[in-house]
């Protein structure tokens, strides 16, 4: 099974391309940034209308035929195709459309649904809150949360009050994890581990992958009470109820449970401030035995602070929406928190994962 999407750079190259920070910005690049939100709307509409699946199944359709298949009026079809072709997601020759190679490769893999789940997350969870990005920077706080109905103190504590958002979020979270956790399974040697504590483990997607790959391993998911039923359902569907359990609780307020040789934070330390991360890592340090390990698995930005661009773009969400602090931090910020929490820096390990998402893992040993 292919879990990683093909390199997306051909898409950007074919279309003139958005800027990457590696080449001097020109006016075309600046216009890409100016209308970046509209470029995304074309992608979202094409995904929701199944335009790429249609043309993958029936390459060479004309605009009129595409409109008829999608049930769109002529003007609407013209707009959609103007965007999809000019952005490089379709090619057109003699009035006949084909899916661009990068998408054609992707559509054939299980990663296509994961990509679409990510598009839906950007549209229905991320988009609106980003309107408050400037104010979030000014106040150093997640002002965009005001756009999410409910009273919970952060996005996660409001999801159960917004069922559509909750469903989009957990579908995406599973997919986003699956885009990278094959590398976690490959690179993380758990042969000496027996019990894993997965802090804020979501629907257990990563614990399921790790326990499936390591038959001697059992895991506990620490999750907020409102999410626990979603987690339990997925564990049951995976047939792992005898090896993975769920502990409803609050990782900030509660003591960490004891008896674990490995503590994992997967897509977790991107949400909180460095100070909160240090406090969480200190709790992990305190609960671990000598030789026990902490695993930080998420996207990382580089230590130079100038990329990769996906890390930068994803940071807008973490600045504006989920909780008061958070971003796609550079590797060194986590290492600093690990040092402050008591971990010995001579045993830190960084592993950068391949693929178009900027995922990686840091392993520290007590
Ligand atoms: C970004 S998701 C990551 C889910 C999962 N680790 C993954 O990688 O797919 C963050 C998760 O942390 C949980 N969470 C947030 N605050 C928490 C808290 N105070 N205590 C326990 N879990 C929390 C959320 O409910 C959510 O499921």
Can you lay out the helices and strands and say which pair or pack?
Elements: H1 9-14, H2 27-34, H3 36-48, H4 51-57, E1 61-62, H5 63-70, H6 74-86, E2 90-93, E3 96-99, H7 101-107, H8 111-129, H9 133-139, H10 163-178, H11 181-187, E4 195-199, H12 205-213, E5 218-223, H13 228-237, E6 244-248, E7 262-266, H14 274-287, E8 293-299, H15 309-320, H16 331-341, E9 349-352, E10 359-365
Parallel strand pairs: 4-5, 4-7, 5-6, 7-8
Antiparallel strand pairs: 1-3, 2-3, 8-10, 9-10
Helix pairs in contact: 3-8, 5-6, 8-10, 9-15, 11-12, 14-16
The protein binds S-adenosylmethionine.
Quickly list its features:
Arc Repressor Mutant, subunit A; single chain; 16 helices; 2 domains; globular; three-stranded antiparallel β-sheet; alpha/beta; seven-stranded mixed β-sheet; 366 residues; binds S-adenosylmethionine
What is the helical fraction, as a range of percent? 40-55%
Spatially, the strands of the biggest sheet line up as 6-5-4-7-8-10-9
Radius of gyration: 22 Å
Question: Main beta sheet, described?
Answer: 7 strands, mixed
| Protein structure class | alpha/beta
**Molecular shape:** globular
CATH architecture of the largest domain: 3-Layer(aba) Sandwich
The CATH homologous superfamily of the largest domain corresponds to: Vaccinia Virus protein VP39
Spans of at least 5 consecutive residues with low confidence:
1-15
Strand content: 5-15%
Question: What's the rounded overall pLDDT mean?
Answer: 94
The succession of helices and strands, N to C, reads HHHHEHHEEHHHHHEHEHEEHEHHEE
CATH topology description of the largest domain: Rossmann fold
| Number of beta-strand segments | 10
Domains (count):
2
Bound ligands? S-adenosylmethionine
């Amino acid at each position: 099974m292919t879990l990683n999407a093909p390199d997306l750079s051909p898409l950007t190259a074919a279309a003139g391309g958005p800027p990457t920070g590696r080449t001097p910005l020109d006016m075309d690049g600046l216009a890409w940034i100016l209308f970046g939100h509209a470029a995304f709307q074309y992608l979202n509409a094409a995904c929701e209308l199944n335009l790429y699946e249609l043309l993958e199944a029936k390459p060479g359709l004309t605009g009129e035929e595409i409109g008829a298949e999608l049930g769109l009026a002529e003007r609407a079809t013209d707009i959609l195709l103007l965007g999809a072709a000019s952005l490089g997601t379709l090619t057109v020759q003699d009035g006949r459309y084909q899916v661009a190679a990068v998408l054609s490769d992707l559509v054939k893999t299980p990663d296509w649904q994961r990509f679409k789940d990510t598009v839906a997350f950007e549209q229905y969870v991320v988009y609106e809150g980003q309107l408050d990005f400037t104010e979030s920077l000014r106040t150093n706080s997640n002002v965009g949360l005001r756009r999410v109905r409910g009273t919970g103190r952060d996005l996660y504590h409001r999801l159960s009050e917004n069922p559509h958002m909750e469903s989009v979020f957990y579908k995406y979270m599973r997919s986003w994890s699956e885009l990278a956790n094959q590398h976690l399974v490959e690179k993380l040697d758990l042969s000496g581990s027996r019990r894993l504590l997965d802090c804020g483990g979501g629907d257990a997607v990563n614990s399921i992958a790790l326990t499936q790959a390591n038959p001697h391993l059992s895991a506990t998911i620490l999750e907020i009470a409102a999410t626990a039923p979603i987690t339990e359902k997925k564990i049951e569907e995976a047939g792992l109820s005898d090896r993975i359990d769920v502990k409803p609780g609050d990782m900030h307020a509660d003591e960490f449970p004891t008896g674990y040789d490995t503590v994992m934070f997967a897509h977790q330390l991107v949400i909180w401030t460095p100070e909160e991360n240090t406090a969480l890592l200190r709790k992990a340090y305190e609960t671990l035995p000598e030789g026990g390990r902490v695993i930080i698995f998420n996207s990382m930005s580089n230590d130079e602070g100038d990329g990769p661009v996906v890390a930068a773009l994803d940071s807008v969400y973490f600045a504006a929406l989920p909780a008061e602090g958070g971003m796609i931090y550079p590797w060194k910020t986590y290492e600093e928190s690990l040092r402050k929490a008591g971990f010995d820096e001579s045993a830190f390990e960084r592993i950068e994962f391949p693929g178009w998402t900027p995922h990686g893992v840091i392993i520290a040993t007590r």
